[in-house]
Design brief:
This protein is mainly α and 229 residues long. Helix content is 76%, strand content 0%. The two termini are 24 Å apart.
């Protein structure tokens, strides 16, 4: 219900301002940023050799989610420390925060999925992670468009892009940038950069963890409903 609520006045104003700013940025800049984000995310999504938490089939949902919360806490603290270090280093280190923080968040999604018993080697499951990420870092209007896909994943997944190159990376990067721009820009400011980076990364990672848990809860509810039917 929280995700499905209509955009408020502040949300509409913020989205309008961001849209206006984005319209001033040359298309070639948008393309360059899209390619950069696409390559970073692809590198994480297609990474091999990662060690994922073991899924124990005998655990109850509560026990499983206790493990998920422990992982979120670990990534949240890691991201916070990373944000403090890069925030204290000025603009150069602040720019390094972007790929580092993105990798931390994506790796956390992989761990959460594994703990829920999802095969993260499956292409469609990795694509699901992208949509969970996008849902978490989007405007309220965009969330209203994406939540139906998450709720009805089994109906939508076969019509989704067949490879990552067909994914709408421009919309993905615009949603993400618009959501985190203000916090991450403040991180580049001398003196306040370190605490701002620590707090921003802490909150954003926790936010993503909450959305991921609820996304997989929806998937579990769908599976249970199909068994009842």
């Amino acid at each position: 219900m929280k995700v499905k609520k209509p955009p408020g006045i502040f949300s509409r104003m913020s989205h309008g301002v961001q849209g206006k700013i984005n319209s001033w940025i040359p298309e070639k800049v948008h393309r360059a940023i899209s390619v950069a984000i696409e390559n970073m995310v692809k590198a994480v999504l297609t990474g091999s050799g990662w060690v994922f938490p073991k899924f124990h089939a005998g655990l109850s949902l509560k026990e499983r989610e206790d493990k998920v919360r422990v992982r979120i806490k670990w990534y949240r603290n890691t991201a916070s420390a990373e944000g403090a270090v890069t925030g204290a280093g000025g603009i150069l280190l602040g720019l390094a925060d972007f790929p580092a923080f993105l990798t931390i968040k994506m790796k956390m999604l992989f761990d959460i999925a594994a703990l829920y018993g999802v095969d993260v080697k499956d292409y469609q499951e990795r694509l699901f992670l992208l949509y969970v990420f996008q849902l978490s870092f989007s405007s309220q209007k965009r969330r209203n468009e994406l939540i139906g896909l998450i709720e009805n994943w089994d109906s939508f997944k076969n019509d989704l892009p067949k490879d990552l190159g067909q994914f709408d990376w421009k919309t993905f990067q615009l949603d993400y940038r618009d959501y985190i721009d203000l916090a991450k820009l403040a991180q580049l400011v001398p003196i306040i950069g370190a605490p701002v980076g620590a707090i921003a990364n802490y909150k954003l990672t926790e936010h993503l963890g909450e959305y991921a848990m609820n996304a997989y809860r929806l998937r579990m509810l769908q599976t249970s409903q199909r068994k009842l039917d």
